[in-house]
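Researcher: Last one for today. Full complex below.
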Amino acid sequence: MALDKQQLVEMYRRMCRIRYFEEAVIEIHSSGELIGPAHPYIGEEAVAVGACAALRDTDRIAGNHRSHGHPIAKGGDVNRAMAEILGKSDGYCKGKGGSMHLADFSIGILGESGIVASSVPIATGAALAAKLSKQDFVSLVFFGDGASNQGACHESMNMASLWDLPVIFMCENNGYAITTSYKNSVSVDHVSDRASAYGMPGVLIDGQDAIAVWEATNEAVRRARAGEGPTLIEAMTYRFEDHSLGLDKIRKSEYRTQEEVDEAMTRDPLPIHRSAMINQGFVTATECDEIEATVHSEIEGAVEFARNSPYPKPEDLYEDMWATPV
Amino acid sequence: MATKTYIQAIAEATIEEMERDKSVFTMGEDLRHSVYGATAGLVERFGEDRVLDTPLSENGFFGAALGASLCGMRPIVETVTSFLWVGMDQLISQAAKMRYMFGGQAELPVTFRVRMFYARGASAHHSDRNYPVFMNTPGLKIICPSNAYDAKGLMKTAVRDNDVCLLFEDGIAISSRTEVPDNADLPNGELLVPFGVANIVQPGSDVTIVGIAGGVQHAIDAAKVLEAEGVSAEIIDPRTLVPLDTETILKSVAKTGRLVVVDPAHKMCSAGSEIAAIVAQEGFWDLQAPIQVVASEQINVPYSPALEPLIYPTPEKVVSAIRTVLG
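Model: Here's the assembly. Have a good evening.
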């Protein structure tokens, strides 16, 4: 099975959507409109988009603090995502979640989490529900190399393998947990090496290549739907920006060298995918330019939508606490 | 009417809810062999898929219960107060916050059945009475049945509730027997006790005693002692701490003018201190004496049988507190 033109183009569109969305967030932050922290996903777009391209709307995903890209890749609405980041009432969570807590349950986005690794058990539980209720959805959780050291991760992988749950553990290894490097924090060469400890396949892939991510995810999804259990995928990627907007201290620290950043940025997932599509004869450069222009105006629209959306009202403070009123 | 133990009531509620709704399942440690007494025979009755023995991974399986609940299931999780600490990240950062944080998108119909062992020589690591910690976290419903009747009725309500419920099963009450009606004798064919409605255990006019969980029995025992001296005590069991029926408590204090709260938790920032604060703020002009809170000493639970009983509320301490408020 291979991706067709329509799928490849849609993947490119979504990668552009994430990239331009994040660029807009950075701009808004620098202008002072955005008050909280925000963690740009720039450089890692191929992982979210490649993974979500292998999923259906009914499949569930969960993410982490660096998670603007995951819901956009799953088909989320950039208007509502941007409005949420600005704390507006038209945001995905009516302004109650913000940058680290985007969610759209209607298309299987079970929400992002600001506590590193805490979505991993949630996604595992979603897969448990699929198994117990005999529904054929799968769940996929995005987490980083830092999260891979949390007990929640290990506990979840053990349960998922023990119970053959339809879950895909998608580790985005960007080399750093804020400033702590992979080699200073993980005891094995690759996170995917740990899969054997849980009796599940561990797959190491190039996370800058959306097609490679799709291929690995597609096989993991096939296994999951067939009742063969979980898969751990480790996508090697790189965060082109700093850990979080507004944390100048980190920007100034020398936890990674400029040479390393420059080298990593030569493997930008957007041009890699664009060239692959052009080289294989699926699209022309002009068509790609058109996609980029369309997405640029889409993101400008999202920023305008978010800016025009009203803030929540004081009385909204007490809404949404309980599903069964007290 | 048949009397049943608290633990039988919990077991009955579990079976009835699992029979009624296929999305209800149980998970926890050692369920098959019913180490804590409420899950005997469930595997044989409902099969292994609906009675999951979990690995010792509280943070993992608490979170898995939450994730399953987001996708249409209604898990009942069995655990112990002291193991809640192991899964705190999922309880506080996810269970309590997901719904609000996601603007009301999440429904989390999970019931945590939490056994509260204490006063049995289990020492510091197995004697926690930690419901006040969770009262301080918005987003969790806190249920503290004191007897078999309420245990069954509240448990069934919890399973049907669409929010995360922590039902604290009081270890010193677990073998106590209460009359629990058979379903056939109930007008609706089943026993459901609503949240946020306090039970007036006995009416009285001289002093209000609010008892929490096992504290209710101490209140009853103390009231008996003082009844012989002509003291009429009104005993109130809030049954749920979140939501809390403050109206019934304030009404009672308006009548009696005196309040003693009996709370097995440690005293600082306890349920007892919260109730005292509410009455001080909203019922101050009804009070004829300072409020007394009889709670556990603010020290860790010691092992020795010579020491442990000294820290908890007892009927004697409650009698003494009542004498204080009566002046």
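The longest helix of chain A spans residues 5-30. Chain A has one domain: 5-309.
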